[in-house]
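Marked as duplicate of an earlier ticket. Keeping the data here for the record.
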Amino acid sequence: MTCEQNRLTQKKGKLMIKKRLVIPWGWLVSGLLYQIPASGADLRQCQTLITAQNVAQCALASNPSLQAEAAALQAKEGGRINAQRYFPSNPTLNISAARRGAKGMEPEAFNWYLTLGEEIEVGGQRGARKKAAEATWEAQKKRIQGVAREIAKEAWVAFYETLAFEETHALARELETISNRAKEAVHAMAERGRLSPLETHLTDIAATRMFQFVRASERKYYTSRAVLGTLVGVDAQNAAWKIEGTLDPSSFPIPLAPPKDQMAQEDLTSPEIESLQAEEQSLQTTAVLLRRTRIPNPTFFFFAQNDGYNEKVLGGGVSIPIPLPEPIGQTYNGNIQEMEASAQRLAFSRQQAQRTLRQQRRVIWHKVESTRLELQAFSTSKIQQVKEDLQKLAQEIETGHIGIRDALFMQESMIQFFVDHIEAKRLACIAAVEWAHASGAPLEASL
């Protein structure tokens, strides 16, 4: 085998080792992130069509913050691997040589000395190190789950807001057509002398306000669309992607379970609270590791030497570090105090998060119930009747059954009715998303 072939063989072996390490890790991260779509077809669909079935997955698959947290988890995995080592340091080999010159009748001599030493942990440092690395890894894993839930929540809210503003914009354009017909009818009556110029001006003002309503709804729609596109990772140059969905809380694919008031505060949990608890555990295990590190590690050594005039000597021994109090030596007191205080801070933060979660669950569930009752007020028959009345408004003005001022007032009330209906649906959908997030439902899971 030539040198070049040998080099290629070694390089191929290194690549195979790297693949064996990285590929299972990729599977692990994918499992932690709840089956984020990784196939090319799924990612291509995120660039063309966003629906209730893929909005959360598309947001998770393309979010740099989540990818950064996954990279941090991979770094923690390196710490777990490093904690598996049996010895705190590599063995040390000391080799020395000397030449003894001739003196009087004594001949010259060549002396050599060899010492092999190894530090041994006797205070349980390896076990503490493994627990600390495992706790740090677990804390990062919980942090990823919390970040994924926040990203999924933002994507769901943006999805429903985009649907709401899209529906509002479509309604505004439809109402603009109806308003223009009423305006034309009023102007025709004014030309025949049946109306005063003041009433014509009032109609023009109403038409201008309707035009402003159309433009405002258009701005809100395109703004919300841009926000959703950013969250799901749509290419900024891609303007052809579509959104499909129903602005209805019943379209939210996660069932909404009522709260359990009998649950004690200390039993309340969520991925965010579990993340705080895991970080607290990580700091506590790190403090234990620092305490174990203060225990001196003996170093056992073996030596062989050729001393004097070819005198062979074999032997061994042990050296033990002498711990000195701070500030003369290192006892890690400051580091331990820092870890314990930080763990206590996280414990208080976790208690506060549990209090906040209990309050949020009550408030958000009330919002879910309130918006549900509000939506029931907009019955299908009532909505249809208002649509028919609005369509007849221009005809009623022409026949003189309704005065201009009354017609404008009725038109504004009907328009506000439709706007309130869309707003009620938007609030109900967002309340469903917020409740799923507060109750710990898998917002980021495959649906």
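See parent ticket for discussion. Residues 11-41 have pLDDT under 50 and may be disordered.
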